[in-house]
Predict the 3D structure of the following.
Amino acid sequence: MASLTAVSTASMAVARSVAKPKTLRPAFHMAPRSGWINDPNGPVYHNGQYHMFYQHVPDSSEWQWGLVWGHAKSQDLVNWEHLPPALVPEANTPDRDGCFSGCTAVDIDGTPTMLYTGVVRKPEPQHGAFEHQLVAIPTDPSDPDLKVWKQLPGTFLPAPPADMDVTGWRDPFVLEKPSEINPYWYVMVGSGIEHKTATALVYRSKNLRTGWEFVGPLCESNISTMWECPIMAKLTSANPHPAASNNSHLQRHMFCVSPDYCVNMAQYYLGDYAEGKFDLENAAGPQPLDLGDVLYAPNVLTDKHGRSVLWGWMQERPALRPAGKYDSSCCLCVPRVLYLSPDGQAMLQEPLPELKLLRQQHTAWTTEGIPLSLLPGSPVDIAGTVSGSSHVEITVSKGDADSFAVVLHPFVEAGVAGAAGAAIAYCWRINTLQ
């Protein structure tokens, strides 16, 4: 028998626009006022504010060509204010059919700088798009909101060597900034080599905007054919809470990729990186970044406390939200802090501690103060005590049980069939969460 104590913390603290017909959006997770959202792009901390950009279709709840970079700002990574799109495709430019994913870095002179992939659709009957790596900067770097951005002329990266026969070339990410011992910026771009391997191609330059030269593959894998949205973060075993005293000296690099297409889930490796090379052969992995089946194309930020904070695209299933039925689609996962286990052998993740700022009403599931008892084969129904917007914490005392599970039943509107719940299970015997 196991005993269970759960706390439901309803959250209504995130400001949203006035409800409209067919409007149903999350309160805990970042989502635009309306329209489609997918990859988080270029999270950055600048002049005391955090900025999040994201793949966005403002006037449709379905993916379309012509993606813009949506934009939101925050002072605490929890409460976000949406701003006008930062990047919008322009006629007769290398991004005229969409501003695809990328990153934002603060240049040596303090200027926030976007590196992203612009696309131009191939003429029919061909499929896909021509990909270009582009740079954008704020028209007024002193504007605390960074509302208006301009694309700089030309492309900032040379094309891959012609004899590589790449299957794709998109989603630039800064690997390394200049330092006292390294004069170069390093950037990687997701790619694949036809009929061979998935890879990320590395370039370097002493100037963030120009002068880039090809270095070679960061690493290669034959498990997939193309790596989208590659990211990397240097992790430590430091406590993720801002007020903690952190003196950790353990460090490893987390290299994360989104393989092939969004039906696959993001994977990561823990290993060693130096000067444009990641030692994949001796790295631990690949491991799933998330135990669900909807997280893809994550991005990562080093916050003002030095923590690695990650967001990912949370997809939606048509069975629950048919295309076009609502005025918005998808969201970003809640921010999670990444850090190493005390021995440095595993990556740990937990929701950003500051999310507690959203908590308001507290409810505990007990029987006259005594935790609920779980008996084998006898489910305990705690329906009716969770609002549509809740943060739930569950503490389970093992007793003589080998395992336990929590089943989450989805909110389903009348007439929507095929909805499936989710199960969270833990087995003490094999120390596995599923």
Notes: The CA atoms of residues 188 and 202 lie 4 Å apart.
